[in-house]
Amino acid sequence: MNVDALADLIRGRRPCVALTGAGISTESGIPDFRSPNGIWARYDPMEYATIDAFLDDPVKVWDFYGRRLQVLGDAEPNDGHVALAELEERGWVHAVVTQNIDRLHERAGTRTLVEVHGSIRTSSCLDCGTVVPLADVVELLPVPPCPACGRVLKPDVVMFGELLPAAQIAHAEQLACDAGVLLVVGSSLEVYPVAGLPLQTLANGGAVAIVNHGSTPFDTRATVVIDGGAGETLRALADRLE
Ligand SMILES: [Zn+2]
Fold first, then answer.
1. What is the mean pLDDT of residues 109-128?
2. 3-state SS string over the chain?
3. CA of 152 relative to ligand 1 center, distance in Å
4. Predicted structure pTM score
5. Which residue among the candidates 81, 94, 105, 117 is catalytic per the annotation?
């Protein structure tokens, strides 16, 4: 069975670094926004999710983002998030690099977490730099102003047209280079620069394993490929790596 092969791979090639995408959070009720039924099928990302849209009309973008926060706030970590936190606790997983902004890894107990697309954890003022935690932002909806200067806050998630946070990307690249195994979970590896991380692992002699519904461009170069759900697969993996 493939989960046995995955467990053997991780046993033989620590440290394992997990790279997670939207697919690990769909089981928590957060739809993959790139899927045909996802949020960008109904809302034009150019109108709601670019930095230019935000700068032009922050009220419109917050109307959309506030509703997203509600969905994300109601979601709970699932077996996949919990299993990764357990594997870190036991020393099998060294770190989690995620494209998700939903905080579910943190809430499941993951300690070394690199969020390359930012997080809903805070919003910031582009004028004076004040940082406001999520709980306070929610109180200030629908259009949260900076408590210091009054300008509309910007969510600390990476919008289309913005650069990814350099320190997080550098950390993710270092982890990918040092990984004995890069365990990709719930990502179709189509969005750069994150999609380049498996190449860095392979170039440095590490192995790549993939747990995803559907194929990815790296399937042929991966040592183990499991076409399955994140929750069920990672639970089974954690049970084998006591
Ligand atoms: Zn301010």
1. 97
2. CHHHHHHHHHHHCCCEEEEECHHHCHHHCCCCCCCCCCHHHHCCHHHHCEHHHHHHCHHHHHHHHHHHHHHHHHCCCCHHHHHHHHHHHCCCEEEEEECCCCCHHHHHCCCCEEECCEEEEEEECCCCCCEEEHHHHHHHCCCCECCCCCCECEEEECCECCCCCHHHHHHHHHHHHHCCEEEEECCCCCCCCHHHHHHHHHHCCCEEEEECCCCCCCHHHCCEEECCCHHHHHHHHHHHCC
3. 8
4. 0.94
5. 117
